[in-house]
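Sample pair:
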Amino acid sequence: MAFLVFMILLIFILLYFLLRIYKFLKKKLIKNFFYEPGINEEKFNPDISTDNWDLHKLRLEKFSRSQYKGLTFFVSSENKIYYLSEEGDKVYC
């Protein structure tokens, strides 16, 4: 009789520790991944508007176009910077 009580107690103790280990591993394995656009995405996408002048100049050098404060600027073949007006005319800076 004492042996049976001892075995039941031992099973409950093992189940308790296995449950604790399972909860611990479940917390470790599940990670929350949230998408946060950072400076790298802005650096590699000239179609995202920026207020950062240095980033704007970098994108103009790399892609020959960049959006700065909502306006798209381009680099011509003569390395002049321009944007298109509402009428479609090139306005050089």
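The first helix runs from residue 2 to 29.
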